[in-house]
Design brief:
With about 160 residues, this protein is α+β, with helices and mostly antiparallel strands. It has 2 helices and 6 strands.
Length: about 160
């Protein structure tokens, strides 16, 4: 006897909210450098992460994971810089948003605490508790058309 397929409840659309992605690191497809005419994903956050990914790769970082999520928070990029694991937070601003300050000025104490907790979670889950690590920040600025005008890396932006 086979079971009939489940049907959505009348109050629930079959196109309702998708389940959240699985926890843990995941790697997205490779991203070319914005300087080479990259068509960036829509939205400043996605565009900033793509630009930051390209920027840190150009500096010799090896990307280990993107958008690593834990119950403590999310790390935008986990990368290897030599023998040091770098947990990279990406902050993006459009030209119109610069009135609220530069991207690197928007990292709150609460976000810093979540980044430290997420980094420690990654290290524990990867059996790398004794590894050298730090939290970096990449500040990305976009013009009104969404093109990258600045991508700057701040090593050790968050103390741990």
């Amino acid at each position: 006897m086979t079971t009939p397929p489940r049907r959505a409840k009348a109050s629930q659309s079959p196109h309702a909210e998708k389940p959240p992605p699985p926890q843990g690191g995941r790697v997205r497809e490779r991203v070319k450098s914005p300087a080479r005419g990259l068509n960036l994903p829509p939205g400043p956050g996605k565009a900033g992460e793509a630009a930051a990914d390209a920027h840190v790769r150009s500096l010799g970082y090896k990307i280990l994971a993107r958008n690593y999520r834990t119950s403590q928070g999310e790390v935008d990029i986990v990368a290897l810089d030599g023998d040091t694991i770098a947990f990279i937070e990406v902050k993006t601003r459009r030209a119109s948003g610069l009135a609220f300050g530069a991207p690197e000025e928007s990292l709150t104490r609460a976000k810093q605490a979540r980044l430290i907790a997420a980094a420690q979670s990654y290290l524990a889950a990867s059996s790398l508790s004794d590894a050298d690590w730090r939290i970096d920040l990449v500040a990305v600025e976009l013009d009104r058309a969404g093109r990258v005008t600045r991508a700057e890396l701040f090593k050790g932006a968050v103390g741990g």
